[in-house]
Amino acid sequence: MQTPLSSSSATNRFTGKIAIITGSGRGLGAATALRLANEGADIVVNDISSEAAREMASVIEKIGRRVLMSTHDVSLTSEANALVDSAMKAFGKIDVLVNNAGITRDGMLHKLTEEKFDEVIRVNLKGPFNMGQACAKVMMEKKYGKIVNLASIAWLGNIGQTNYSASKAGLVGMTRTWALELSRYQINVNAVAPGLINTQMTQAIPAEVKEKFIAKIPLRRMGNPEDIAAVIAFLASDEANYITGQCIQVDGGLTTGSAGT
Q1: 142-176 burial, b if ≥16 CB within 10 A, otherwise e?
Q2: What are the beta bridge partners of residue 220?
Q3: Considering 144, 164, 185, 242, which one is annotated as catalytic?
Q4: pLDDT for 114-138, tens place per residue?
Q5: Is 144 a catalytic site residue?
Q6: Strand 145-150, strand 187-194: pairing
Q7: How confident is the model at residue 10, as a pLDDT?
């Protein structure tokens, strides 16, 4: 479990704000929850793993923030709506939504099963849609809100990830569309596309394979969850009030130049 940021690195950008972070029991979601909590936010910790959610909620409580623990499966419309209802009952408002929950079920095109394709689209694309729709209704009434969607540089295409790449490309498209639709309500919508980040998911990659990936990264290292959390925190703050509809690639330069956009 990650430890809270030192008090010297904390600011008050989110004092009085309520943030929902899906998939925040571990990895990028946990780093984001800690970052926002250390900057003053009260947090809705959501993870389908009750153990991970409970552990994360405990850490945030020790920081001194209010926390609501959720194990709702946001890929189901009824569950996403129930989560938002619970947050409204507990806190009375929702200022920030970070759609982080996601999965991979890799396979080459000719071997990819319908089940694996549908599961990734349901979790990675339908889940953010469900949460975005439910939270947007609340934010529209208040005429304020920040939505940050976790994409991936795989949205540009990646071998063996037809389903994952499609879900993340779709998420970027939804981000841009929501930004256009919700701007009149002073709701900012942006996406963050991480590259190779040191999480549980990437720790399972064989060392020799990781070294080949790292050799292609201009900064010559994997990113850390805190690198992503810092960008999410900026986009979720009022410092980014004039930024909407963007997808920021946080990848150490991997997609720069001839390798990508």
Answers
A1: eebbbbbbbbbbbbbeeeebbbbbbbbbbbbebbb
A2: none
A3: 164
A4: 999 999 999 999 999 999 999 999 9
A5: no
A6: parallel
A7: 56
Q: CB neighbours (10 Å) of residue 219?
A: 12
For residue 259, what pLDDT is reported? 46
In one letter, which amino acid is 110? H
Distance CA 181, CA 25 (A): 31
Whether residue 65 has pLDDT greater than 60: yes
Torsion over CA of 119, 33, 177 and 166, rounded to 10 degrees? Answer: -30
1 alpha carbon, distance to own chain's centre: 18
pLDDT for the residue numbered 209: 86
> CB count, 10 Å around CB of 105?
17
Q: Which CATH class is domain 14-196+225-252?
A: alpha beta
Gap between the Cα atoms of 74 and 80, Å rounded: 4
State the DSSP string of 180-202: HHHGGGTEEEEEEEE-SB-SHHH
- Say how far apart CA 205 and CA 162 lie, in whole Å: 19
Using CA atoms, how far apart are residues 112 and 244, in angstroms rounded to an integer?
Answer: 35
Beta strand spans in 110-184 (E): 145-150
DSSP per residue, 46-98:
E-S-HHHHHHHHHHHHHHT--EEEE---TTSHHHHHHHHHHHHHHHS---EEE
pLDDT, one tens digit per residue, over 154-198 is: 999 889 999 999 999 999 999 999 999 999 999 999 999 999 999
Element (H, E) at 99: strand 96-99
The overall longest dimension of the chain from CA atoms, in Å, is 52
